[in-house]
Specification:
Elements lengths: L1 H18 L20 H7 L2 H7 L19 E5 L5 E4 L3 E2 L7 E2 L7 E6 L6 E6 L5 E6 L9 E4 L4 E5 L6
Antiparallel strand pairs: 1-2, 1-9, 3-4, 4-8, 5-6, 6-7, 7-8
Length: 166
């Protein structure tokens, strides 16, 4: 009986810790200022429900669900929340993870913070202009940086490069 109680108490404790994800204070709420700040109602009106969950609530889309996985044209990937250019198609690569991946962001496009959810330490990537959650960066990417910016496709918009008529 003691073993069953211990097991149930342990599971309940782990679930309780996981619930703290919903109660954490986002950096914008901690007094940081960003170029683009909107109320929760304004973000909800602008974004689709899935974009809102990922960009504003730090959610994650299902792997393999983004049409941007198959986007191979030249162009720029921008923040779906504020249109800030974030990644060039020249740095996109097939990571096999199910999310659009890049080895390098554009200059002055992103910011990072440490994410310690679910007993893991990861580096969260967000848009530096609107604080929209984009995904995470890992150190298992290709050369030249060795980094893999694993982004939620829903948090990005693709703009194809202009085609020159020569």
């Amino acid at each position: 009986m003691l073993d069953r109680r211990f097991l149930l108490a342990s599971v309940a404790g782990l679930l309780g810790l996981a619930c703290f994800r919903w109660f954490k204070v986002a950096p914008a709420q901690a007094g940081q200022k960003f170029e683009i700040e909107k109320t929760d109602a304004e973000w909800r009106a602008q974004l689709t429900p899935q974009q809102y969950e990922i960009l504003r609530k730090e959610g994650t889309e299902r792997p393999g669900s983004s049409p941007l996985l198959k986007e191979h044209r030249k162009g720029t990937f921008a923040c779906a929340g504020c249109d800030l250019p974030l990644f060039s198609s020249d740095t996109k690569f097939e990571s096999g993870t199910g999310w659009p991946s890049f080895y390098q962001p554009l200059p002055d496009a992103i910011e990072t913070k440490t994410d310690r959810m679910f007993f893991m330490t990861r580096t969260e990537v967000h848009c530096r202009r609107c604080l929209g959650h984009l995904g995470h960066v890992f150190d298992d990417g290709p050369k030249p940086t060795g980094l893999r910016y694993c982004m939620n496709g829903v948090s990005l918009k693709f703009a194809p490069a202009a085609v020159s008529s020569s």
